[in-house]
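hi! just following up on the protien thing from before. the input was this:
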Amino acid sequence: STGPQGYGLAAGNGGKLMASDITLNTSGVGVYADRSNILAKNLSVQANAYGVYGLGAGTELVIADSNVNVNGNGAYALLAENGGNVTSTNSHYTTSGSSVYGAWANKGSELTIIGGSITNTGKESIGIFAKSGGVVNVDGVTVVSTSQGINSYSSAVANVANSHVTVTDKGAYGLLAENGGKTTSIDSHYITTGDSAYGAWVNTGSELNIFGGSITTTGKNSTGMFAKNGGVLNAENIQIDARGNGAWATNEGSRINVNNSTISSGAYNGGSITARNKGFATVRNSKLIAVDRA
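and the predicted 3d structure came back as:
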């Protein structure tokens, strides 16, 4: 389809659609369910605005074993919105524009991603984003993005397990919980390659829990874990290797709790664990290493 609002596959108002072994090329939305059900398998999707989009309460969109490529700035590869439920299994999503989202869920929607990958190459792009009460569940997924890896924002929830996340921009973030969000990571691995980047970040009224896995930051002045403005970060059985500060808590009410972990840092005038400006840090049964990595 070539119109500005064209659809490859679409179901609405209680409709049900099953599709397999199809190639879709559209200037609008690849797969679209609006208060309806879609079951799709073995698709090849090329779109310019939205790749796979589940909208509205009652929507159940399931896609498996598919490849989705989305072009255009501000685009979305995989989206659950306004109460829709979307499940992706062993599928691969790529975007090439700037300011795009690999996956997004908001307003009572739930997005579950099992296996597969999300790859964003454009500037200021986000891998997986949950906002305003949305929930994302991520298991066994490889995420490569530029600005952010996985973020829960404004009363949203992100649950991550057995996944690998890499972000590449200067000042980028691997794993976040912001403005009341809650993120939990289990046995997952986060890598930042840009300068002044953060492996894990939590701020105002948010909670970030990391159990197992690792955080590696290779750029200059990059930080492993950072809590500010009342954010709480709990880390257990994790390996942190930071070129800059290992873990940093700043501002009143901010807290970092570390247990049974190893933190290696290379910050000048910093350290493996830093608490400033009324920030608070607790370390138990852990190994702290400081090395020269100027």
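The mean pLDDT is 95.
Residues 37 and 66 are 17 Å apart (CA to CA).
cheers
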